[in-house]
Design brief:
There is one protein chain. The protein has 129 residues and is of the alpha+beta class. It has 2 domains: 48 residues; 80 residues, no CATH class. Helices cover 36% and strands 19% of the residues. The strands form 3 sheets. The chain has a 3-stranded antiparallel beta sheet, with helices on one face. A two-stranded antiparallel ribbon has the order 2-3. Helix 2 packs antiparallel against helix 3. The longest helix has 20 residues. The chain starts with a strand and ends with a helix.
C-alpha cells in the first residue's frame, strides 16, 4: 500500500533507526501501512505514474533544478531532504552511470561526478558567483 507520511517518523530498522520526513511516499506492506494510517502518522495515496522530468537535475551551467512537481522527498521548502542531500544523490547517480555505462573505474567516475556537483556547491552553497 502506498502511503504518504504526514509528520516526521522515527522508524526502527535492523541497523538502528531512520527518520522518515513528512511528505515522503513509501510503498509498504498492508499491515505496516495500516498501523501508520490508524494512528494518523500517514495517509493513503493513489499510485502516481513515475515522471522522470520531475526529478532534480543539474543543468548545463551546473545549476541545481528542483521542479515544483518533484517527489516530496526533494521538496526542501516543505520539510523534504536538504539541498546537500539531493546533491549527494545526484553525485552518486552520476558516478554510477559513468562507472556502469561509461566504463570508468569507480575512482575515476567519482572524480568526474565530483567535478560536476562541486561546481554547484562552489557557486551557490559556499557564497560564490
Amino acid at each position: 500500500m502506498k502511503i504518504e507520511f504526514l509528520k516526521d517518523f522515527e522508524a526502527k530498522t535492523a541497523s538502528g533507526s531512520r527518520t522518515i520526513v513528512a511528505g515522503t511516499v513509501l510503498d509498504l506492506a498492508d499491515d505496516k501501512a495500516g498501523k501508520l494510517l490508524a494512528v494518523g502518522i500517514a495517509k493513503a495515496v493513489d499510485s502516481i505514474p513515475f515522471d522522470p522530468t520531475s526529478l532534480p537535475y543539474l543543468d548545463q551551467r551546473g545549476r541545481l533544478v528542483i521542479p515544483f512537481n518533484c517527489p516530496p522527498k526533494y521538496r526542501y521548502w516543505a520539510g523534504g531532504q536538504t539541498v546537500q542531500e539531493t546533491l549527494r544523490e545526484l553525485f552518486e547517480e552520476r558516478a554510477a552511470i559513468m562507472q556502469h555505462d561509461g566504463g570508468l573505474s569507480r575512482e575515476q567516475a567519482e572524480q568526474e561526478a565530483a567535478k560536476i556537483t562541486s561546481r554547484y556547491v562552489r557557486d551557490h552553497l559556499n557564497g560564490g558567483g
